[in-house]
């Protein structure tokens, strides 16, 4: 493909309304996924003061333990991202991203239905 043909193909893609709409959907989905990716850590950060003040919620928790739990969560995010990236290289990043979004949505949607059990206290 020569330079002129390549330039014409690029110009067509940037002016094609379907292409622009697809790009908007991709950016929107990626933004929503990024927001929800950090949601669990934001909730943990908001709940930590309550957990430190009230030992009846989870048991006696020191500031060191609370910090370690937050660090473990970030380590889990890193390990999950590395694994999802490696698997995504083999089966496709789109499939991994959509599977993760569906899985997260179902799990978050099911949490209001569950009662606290003695094991979780």
Account of the protein in words:
The protein has 121 residues and is an all-alpha fold. It has five helices and no strands. The chain has helices at residues 3-15, 17-53, 55-58, 63-91, 93-110. The longest helix is centred in the N-terminal third of the chain and has 37 residues, at 17-53.
Task: List key phrases describing it.
single chain; 121 residues; elongated; mainly alpha
What is the C-alpha radius of gyration, as a whole number of Å? Answer: 22 Å
N-to-C terminal Cα separation, in Å? 65 Å
Order of helices and strands: HHHHH
The helix content is: over 70%
Quantity of strands, as a count: 0
Class based on secondary structure composition and strand pairing? mainly alpha
- How many helices does DSSP assign? 5
> Which oligomeric state applies?
single chain
Structural shape: elongated
Low-confidence stretches: 117-121
The major beta sheet can be summarized as: none
The percentage of residues in β strands lies in under 5%
Overall pLDDT:
80
In short:
The chain contains five helices and no strands.
Write the layout of secondary structure elements.
Elements (H helix, E strand, L loop, with lengths): L2 H13 L1 H37 L1 H4 L4 H29 L1 H18 L11
């Amino acid at each position: 493909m020569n330079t002129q043909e390549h330039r014409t193909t690029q110009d067509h893609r940037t002016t094609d309304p379907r292409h622009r709409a697809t790009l908007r959907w991709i950016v929107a989905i990626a933004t929503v996924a990024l927001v929800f990716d950090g949601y669990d850590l934001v909730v943990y950060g908001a709940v930590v003061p309550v957990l430190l003040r009230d030992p009846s919620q989870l048991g006696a928790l020191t500031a060191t333990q609370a910090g370690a739990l937050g660090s473990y969560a970030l380590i889990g995010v890193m390990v999950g991202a590395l694994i999802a990236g490696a698997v995504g290289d083999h089966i496709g990043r789109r499939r991994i991203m959509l599977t993760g979004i569906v899985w997260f949505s179902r799990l978050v949607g099911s949490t209001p239905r569950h009662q606290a059990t003695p094991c979780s206290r």
